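Closing statement on the zinc ion sub-project.
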Amino acid sequence: MKKLVVLVFIFVFLLVFPGLADKTVRDSEDATHILVGEVTGVEGYYDYNEYGDYLIFSRVTVRVDKELKGRAEKFISFSVEGGEVGELGLRVSNTPVFKKGQVHRLYLKKLNAIYKLIKQEKIKPEAKPQTECCATFAKWPQNTASFYLNPNCNDMTPNCTYSEIDRGSGDWQPVFKLVIAGTTSMTKVKQDYQNIVFFRKAKGGSTIAVTYTWYNRTTGIIIEFDMMFYDGWKYFSFDRNCTSACNGGFYLSVIAAHEFGHAIGLDHNDCTASIMYPYADYCETGLVQSVDRTCAATIY
Ligand SMILES: [Zn+2]
């Protein structure tokens, strides 16, 4: 009976929130382990992910204080994308940032003795209730940046992709000016001082798109971003000459506006009116809101 209630809840939830700009909650079902523990170590290192992106990862070590599901060792560790090595930091928009001393409830999948993080809920320090619809983590030295676009998207022509990405990025004006400097054929993330935006021919689970923002640890200055859209989702344009009316998918410019928020240093917030709210509905039409420009104006 309880399982049925959970399944009905998940079904309703996925109807309402088909995809998160960055993730969804079916997770606890997949977890082999649900543990509560304190982060005792975070170590940054470089490596490749399954798509060949060359990234900074964090190996997180946790002292297990409570086992809610599954038996575990006293100390466990797992790796997540994002972290810091030397002077360089990498913020990955769909991955939490772990710090020593934090206490989390962790949903993990253990496979061949390796733990993979599915999701976490921070218990300590308690998340401060957000008063404003605004959270930032780094900033560009000036309020303008240019990027290269790989317009190879399954659902529309390169010209239409270009104009949708231009619409989403352009909506941060006048606070921040994002310019498409040209096109590229690149399809991998790496730190090379080139800002690229591309489509990955894969379905990222319930993740729609991810922005990788490289910054200087000491100055908090952004030096580069790479942005990837999973092409396993259906993307639509507001221009009827480009696609049919939106149905069972997302307006590309809406998802892009959210991701470019990350590219200029904004984090998620809890305000449903904000473009930086981490959940996305099918066919949502809201682009950058005045509350978002006000937030960007706090750093530019
Ligand atoms: Zn996001």
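The helical segments are 2-16, 27-30, 158-170, 252-263, 290-297. With this model delivered, the sub-project is considered complete and its resources will be redirected to Aim 3.
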